[in-house]
Amino acid sequence: MPTVHLTDIVVSRLKAPGTYFDETTPAFGIRVGKNRKTWIVMRGAIRQRIRIGHYPGMTLADARKQARILLTEEPLDRNSRTTFSAAYTTYKTVLDGKKARTKYDYERILDKYFEPEFGKKPLTKITYEGVIAITDPLPRSEQAHALAVLRTFLRWCVRPPRRYIKHSPLEGITITMGKPRKRVLKDDELVTVWNSAKKQGYPHGDIVQLLILTGQRKTEIANLRQPWINEKDRTITLPDWICKNGQEHTFPYGDRVAAILETIPRRNSTDLLFPSYVADDRPISGWSKYKKRLDDLSQEPPVNWDSTVLYPKIPAWRLHDLRRTFGTKLAELKVTPHVVERMLNHSMGSITNKTDGLVSEVAKVYNLAAYLPEMRDAVAKWEDRLDTLLAR
User: Fold this and answer.
1) Looking at the predicted structure, is the pLDDT value of residue 356 above 60?
2) Superfamily for 187-303+310-390?
């Protein structure tokens, strides 16, 4: 296996498949494959190969630093004294390959609840009782989230080639998530939110109105890019990497969405419709600030408000409730369940058929175009219904 002096320029120019070891840090190198380059380190008497991460997602400097940490640790075996912190450091390279939100959530949980308590403790000394002592005081939903994240991490610790521990102390536990939300906005609440969003305007107000009209997730609408919009066919195609279920999603839109899209300012520096104020290559952020402003606008009485009448305030709601409201309203308009699911880009059942309100796995792949007319009809019904509500 060739040995070279790895630099950023050298690594970027490596094309021929093979493994190239670093002259500066022995046992550390990069494996060049057909489709990607992988940082590796060879450790121990048995020359155990450990993958550190992928280039260019992980830089040479970060990979070399991680390699030096691994090479100074005690080799991993069934009697390993590897600490939580040491394993977690390696696990972060796995998280680098996940979606940004997943990486953030996992690191937040592990850093906040488990690293302070378990950091210097060998993984073999972590017990179920010790974990529960940390998670029991947490709110129910956060408790479930913390246990789920830690269980995933510990399962990773069990799998080869690591084998940090023989068994996970959380294996076999049942994690009870919080009760699913059922909040659906009433017609008058929806009208108030729509009008408040109109007053709020671009960018957040426009996003809220698009959520009401399309039923998509806020991150999907916030990430909208001009190339995803087919103005001729009046469709929007969300790529698989932005969708929660990892499946590309094409859905039609109507007159109201078209009117909103026409008013959104275009920038030469980005394809994003709703870029962040911090950087044009990042989507809008600061959701809590925008939502608070929208709530404030929603609580303002109308201009012609009669002061002798108690003005009703909207009970607490979240942006995701608009998605649930969209699906519910379509059902009330007699839109068939499988079309509602298509509009929402839910993963469909693997059995039953269209008559039962579901589609087969084969139909998911081959019949996408067949549902567009039905989806367009659903969009038209919903916009007509919304027009009626707003005209009151």
Assistant:
1) no
2) Intergrase catalytic core (1.10.443.10)
